[in-house]
Amino acid sequence: MRGIFFVMHIDILKTDATNPHFQNLVRELDYYLAEMDGEDHSFYAKYNKLDDLKNCIILFCDGVAVSCGAYKIFNDETIEIKRMFTKEEYRGKGFAKMVILFLEKWSREKGFSSAVLETGKKQESAVKLYQSQGYEITPNYGQYIGIEDSICFAKHLKSKS
Question: What is the pTM of this model?
Fold first, then answer.
């Protein structure tokens, strides 16, 4: 039996929010969220500024920036995962999972032992992704307390072995 196999070349870049590829992906994310969240988008947008993001990951597929994510310090032991996005035409191929795994690994290397994140209830594929990666729904934290359309997650990050 013969088949055609496609090989993709994947590059991973650790960077910060000043990277133009990261900024372009985040612009696409903001456009996507504005459509999905409607009038609620302005509430969430004020908590998604790039100024505090020093730990960003970009995945490149055959030279094209296709997926990103970041973390910022939440407290002494915990990071908050932010700005997760994969271009629509690359979804369902495992890129977001790779981004999460790299963010978790990077944060463990920096001594963090847990992660939190927030997503919207309308973002069903994101909810499924986080649950598939061991994130558990937790009471809403910080600015998301009392926000009915938000779902917050937490995960204990396994130590390096």
Answer: 0.88
